[in-house]
Structures are given as structure tokens and as C-alpha cells.
Amino acid sequence: MRISQLEGWRVALWGWGSEGRAAWKAIRSRLPQLPLALFCNEVEAADVAGLGDPLLQPRTRVDAEALAAFDIVVKSPGISPYKPEALAAAARGTHFIGGTSLWFGEHADGRTVCVTGTKGKSTTTSLLAHLLRAGGHRTALAGNIGLPLLEVLEPQPVPEFWAIELSSYQTGDVARSGAHPEVAVVLNLFPEHLDWHGSEDRYIEDKLRLVTEARPRTAVLNAADPRLAALELPGSRIIWFNREDGWHLRDDALYRGDDFVFDTAAVPLPGRHNRGNLCAVLAAIEALGVDATPLAPAAMDFRPLPHRLQWLGERDGIGYVNDSISTTPHASLAALDCHRGSPVAILLGGHDRGLDWHGFAERLRAQPPKAVVTMGANGPRIHELLEGEAGEGLFALEAADDLADAVARARRLLGGRGVVLLSPGAPSFGAYRDYTERGRHFAALAGFDPDGISTIPGLGVA
């Protein structure tokens, strides 16, 4: 759907975060006289009052009856379409779309590379933009990574390529837009966001809409992921990575088929899984018709993203790693794997989405850290699960009241040597606005400047 097609319909916005504000600005830029309602909380309603837009009317009551009064609701990604009030309104004819759908409606012919996956998608998308720019291609970096697509509705100059990160909340919007990405990359699939999707099966189904329903020209898929390896996509060409006939790693050596390209050991990508995602980036670049081999060494100049296995520095013999974006047990295990061989105190817990931690506990038995400190709403559940291993002396286990207490306990348990690893395996909701705020607080508690560690490089067009 194009923005112009909203004219004549009863339209509301739902959510007033960065995506909601971007949707308002974009609609106003094209349809300045369109009446808009906004479903938001009381604090956001006060903010709206100062905008000077008499045609934007905030509403603080959200139920099925209120939503059903509108033909189209442009909702923010974090709001689940599976909420009872949304399902009831949809059954009565209300059409729910997201800003991603509106953007693709305006850019159906854009040379887009969409990247999704449970973990690694931000780093992969940023690395994609970095390598394309290194090859002299003007590239936009936007989407879930921190710049809503509607914020770059009409960039000047126009980019040659778009590197777009999409969360599982947004992948369906691409399909609903009617546009087809030129390239779609799916990195991996693990259970996540079950509170938003309602079940693991629906999470996988929603995530894969990017390739099963949006029908990209080329799908770049991870051959090492069992679910992805089983996919058949009749409407798309498939390029596999992490397979010996394509881009893959042998230890740290990067190969394209049988051809050695370069040694990735010194590439500033935290974790072998991220170096493996370099293979996805190179496969995506080739899918665009660009020779990727000469661009691969430019990964050496890549600047890692904040809050993703981010080395903050050392204080009094103890190193601090900020992996605040970690919201699944799988991500926490990957973070531990990056620091194998070092004494590690890992900080676990946050908002409880009901994920299963038994697999994490089993892996911890085989590869125990020095200490585990639990915290947050699901901290007690994780603590109870790990008590057996701690009781056998595999690692120290303590429960903290909050992040400040967790950092203090981790310092003491390390005894002046090792790494404090914030990789909570859970969202930050409740205690913090988002993972960025949680990571900034961790940096401050560790004695580092939060403003110095939080900038995402390369957003926008360059």
C-alpha cells in the first residue's frame, strides 16, 4: 500500500515510539490534511499535544471497539497483531499494517537486501552496507537496526542499494506490501519473542514470511540451520552459505567453494558465528551482481556495533563485555563460547517470555563459566534450574536484586581476574526501556562512559 492510498479512509496510528513518530511524519509529508487518531498512553498523549497538529488526535483507551472504528491502523512493530483486541477488530474489517509495509509500497522497485534471523542480523546488515560502500556503491542502512525505514522515505541522493534489517515483527509487512525484495537473507532460527507471536511455530512462520510470502528474487539461506536447509522456495532462486560449494569457513579461513579468500581471525567481528555471517553478506552481494571476492578483506575495517558482544575495556584486572542485545538462551551460549578459556561471570535474566532454559543448562554443564549471577523477572526460574549444577561445584551461582547488584556480585566472584559478561538471554522490559538503556547502565556501572559506547555507525545513506 502506498501512503497516498490512505486518503479517504479512517486511519489511526497505534504506538508512539520511533516507528510511530516516523509513520506520522511520513503520512503528514504526503497527506497533510488526513485526520489521524493515535492510540497511546497518557504520557505520549501529552507529548502529542505539543506537536501543533490539530488533525492528530490521541486516544488512551485501546480495545476492540475503538480499533474497529478505523479502516486502517498503522501499528508499531512491537505491538502484536495477535493481541485479542487486534484480532477482534481485524475480524470486523480493520486492516493492520506497519511502517515497513508503507515504505515498501513506495519503494517497490528499490534494490533491497533484507536481512533477518534470530541473532546476528544487525551486525550482518551493517557489515553488508560497509562492504558495499567499500566497493563504491552508495548504500542505505536502515530498518530495525535503529533507523525506521519511513525516516528515509525520500533520501537525496538516492542510494543504489538498500541494506535493511527486519525483525520477526516486520517480516510479514514486506509480504503484505506486495513488493518483492531483490535479495532476502535468513541467518538462523531459534525460539524468541514467544510472547508477541504466541508460539514457537508461529514465530518461525512469521520470520519466514520474508522468503515464503514476500517471494524475493534471491533467497540467501544458512545451510547449517536445519529448518532453513529444509526450505523449498519455488518462487525464488536460493543461494546457500555455510556450505562447501559456496561461501563458508574452514576454521577461520574464508573460502568461496574451493578457493581460499583470506584468514578472518583478525576481523573485528565478535564470535565465530558473526564471522560465519560474513559468508551470508558475501553471498548477498553476489546475488546483487557485484563481485564480492575483492570486497571481502574490507571486513577488516568494520566497526563492531554497540551492545553486541561489545568489549568495553578493563578495570582493576577485570574486563567488561556488553552483550545487552542478547534476548535468548542461544545468544547467551554464543557469548560464553566467545570467551572460552577465560574466567567468566555471566549476568543472566530479565523479562520472562517463557523460553525454555533446559538446553542452556545442559550446555553449561559441559562448558561451565566461573560464575553465574541471575537477575530480573525470570532470574529465579533460571536460578532454580541451575542450582543442581552449582551444587556440584561446576560454577558459583548467586541471585541479584538488580543489575547494579549483579555487577557487584560478579566482581567479587571473579576475585580480581576475568570477564564480567552481560548477556542476559532475556529482554529488558520492565526494568529498562530497551536493551540500549540496559547496556548503557551496565557501562556506567563498569566505569565507562555510556555515550562513548552507544553510537551505531553508518546509519542512513553513504
TrEMBL record:
The gene is murD2. Belongs to the MurCDEF family. MurD2 subfamily. Cell wall formation. Catalyzes the addition of L-glutamate to the nucleotide precursor UDP-N-acetylmuramoyl-L-alanine. It catalyses: UDP-N-acetyl-alpha-D-muramoyl-L-alanine + L-glutamate + ATP = UDP-N-acetyl-alpha-D-muramoyl-L-alanyl-L-glutamate + ADP + phosphate + H(+); UDP-N-acetyl-alpha-D-muramoyl-L-alanine + D-glutamate + ATP = UDP-N-acetyl-alpha-D-muramoyl-L-alanyl-D-glutamate + ADP + phosphate + H(+). Keywords: ATP-binding, Cell cycle, Cell division, Cell shape, Cell wall biogenesis/degradation, Cytoplasm, Ligase, Nucleotide-binding, Peptidoglycan synthesis. Its EC number is 6.3.2.53. It comes from the Bacteria. Its main location: cytoplasm. This is UDP-N-acetylmuramoyl-L-alanine--L-glutamate ligase. SUPFAM superfamilies: MurD-like peptide ligases, catalytic domain (SSF53623), MurD-like peptide ligases, peptide-binding domain (SSF53244). InterPro entries: Mur-like_cat_sf, Mur_ligase_C, Mur_ligase_C_dom_sf, Mur_ligase_cen, MurD, MurD2. Pathway: Cell wall biogenesis; peptidoglycan biosynthesis. Gene3D superfamilies: Mur ligase, C-terminal domain (3.90.190.20), Mur-like, catalytic domain (3.40.1190.10). It comes from Pseudoxanthomonas suwonensis (strain 11-1). It is found in: Cytoplasm.
